[in-house]
Write a structure and sequence with these properties.
Blueprint: E1 2-3, E2 9-10, E3 17-18, H1 25-28, E4 33-34, E5 38-42, H2 49-62, E6 67-71, H3 76-84, E7 93-97, H4 122-134, E8 138-142, H5 144-151, H6 154-170, E9 174-179, H7 189-193, E10 196-203, E11 211-219, E12 228-234, E13 237-241, H8 263-268, H9 289-302, E14 307-311, H10 316-325, H11 331-335, E15 339-343, H12 351-365, E16 375-376
Parallel strand pairs: 5-9, 5-10, 6-7, 6-8, 8-9, 14-15, 14-16
Antiparallel strand pairs: 1-2, 3-4, 10-11, 11-12, 12-13
Length: 382
């Protein structure tokens, strides 16, 4: 059984699943997209729709699948330049400019689709001919805002989308349709037509970089992880950081208390720190929180365990110099690979990205049976 966007159970379909090519997004989708379906990718300009769609096509190309990018808003040179900024080449992807300089002719200002789903306009017939010749497995249609303007009224626009949906479905194409949310507020026509809807958002903050997040609005016939998921748009493309659900991650461990390195502190704690628990060190500046945390961490390192230290307030050089002055030299453990210190800038990092860093540190450390992870915390990311 599979779960749709409303949470109701539905029989699993016969169609397989395909990867989106975006790190983390397949995990949010619990396996990827159902193939041979039409999906809506929506978001305001600058949220990363084009980048995500290129990753989708490039992933298909890497698997030997043919890809087609149909564009009404950008030309081929602009798309190739955008791909080059990420270090990608679009040589294996067909790019078709649906509207070119001939669209400036006043005589050509008409709907690219007739109201009938059978009588298609000349421009769309060219697209169909290109699809029939290429036989792509993945198609990106960018963007629906231009199609909406050409349609001139909601009824014709809906008929156009339905005609395209039926056409691509008959040719076993998995399609991403991009929309920049220029429709009237509350217009849900595309949501009702598409098999699934992925919404991208970006929000500026008073200080630091903008926060980007996505949400699966709906996905028919499959289970997916709901809610908002932070993502980063950087050189190399989008990376999604799935929302962490602690109940999904379980591990067995020895509950025997481990020494903090201080016999007096162990006595106060009833034997030391118990694995699988959290300990919060609080107090005003200068009382010894960092020194206490470093002492606990060094005790674990000297037992042959590994540790990850996330540093928020101080610089890495300052921490290393201060610890050495206190006769707690961290450099040998860093060189041996037992200690990893990661400096965090909370103004540039989303909470979901930080949680992913913590999760990866724990999982990678647990890949070796000789080590167990420990953490040094300096402050909470807000």
């Amino acid at each position: 059984m599979a779960e749709d966007s409303s949470g109701s159970a539905t029989p699993g379909g016969v169609h397989g699943r395909i990867s989106t090519g975006v790190p983390g997004l397949d995990e949010v989708l619990c396996g990827g997209l159902t193939q041979d379906r039409l999906y809506l990718l929506e978001g305001t300009p600058g949220t990363g729709k084009t980048t995500l769609s290129l990753q989708f096509l490039l992933d298909g190309a890497a698997r030997g699948e043919r890809g087609l990018y149909v564009t009404l808003s950008e030309n081929k040179d602009e798309l190739c330049a955008a791909a080059a900024s990420h270090g990608w080449s679009l040589d294996g992807i067909e790019i078709y400019e649906l509207v070119n300089e001939f669209g400036l002719d006043p005589d050509s200002e008409q709907s690219i689709l007739h109201p009938s789903e059978i009588e298609l306009g000349e421009t769309v017939r060219d697209v169909i001919a290109r699809v029939d010749d290429l036989k792509p497995a993945r198609v990106v249609f960018d963007s629906l805002s231009e199609l909406r303007l050409l349609a001139q009224n909601p009824l014709r626009y809906r008929r156009q989308i339905l005609a395209l949906k039926q056409y691509f479905a008959r040719r076993s194409c998995t399609v991403l349709m991009l929309d920049d949310r220029t429709s009237e507020p509350g217009d849900q026509q595309l949501h009702s037509i598409a098999h699934g809807v992925i919404s991208l958002e970006q929000a500026p903050r008073e200080f630091g970089s903008e926060r980007r997040r996505l949400r699966i609005v709906k996905m028919r016939g499959i289970k997916f992880r709901g809610g908002y998921h932070d993502f980063a748009l950087d050189t190399g493309g989008l990376t999604v950081f799935p929302r962490l659900v602690a109940a999904e991650h379980h591990a067995t461990f020895d509950p025997t208390a481990a020494s903090t390195g201080s016999a007096e502190l162990d006595l106060l704690l009833g034997g030391g720190l118990v694995p699988g628990t959290n300990t919060l060190l609080i107090g005003p500046s200068g009382v010894g929180k960092t020194t206490t945390a470093l002492g606990c961490m060094l005790a674990a390192l000297e037992r042959g365990e590994s540790a990850t230290y996330f540093l928020f307030d101080e610089g890495l050089a300052t921490l290393l110099a201060r610890s050495a002055m206190l006769n707690m030299n961290l450099s040998p453990h860093i060189e041996a690979g037992r200690l990893t210190i990661t400096q965090i800038d909370p103004a540039e990092l989303a909470p979901g990205e930080f949680a992913t860093h913590v999760r990866h540190a724990v999982e990678k450390r647990r890949s070796s049976p000789l080590y167990s992870p420990g953490f040094g915390w300096r402050r909470v990311l807000s």
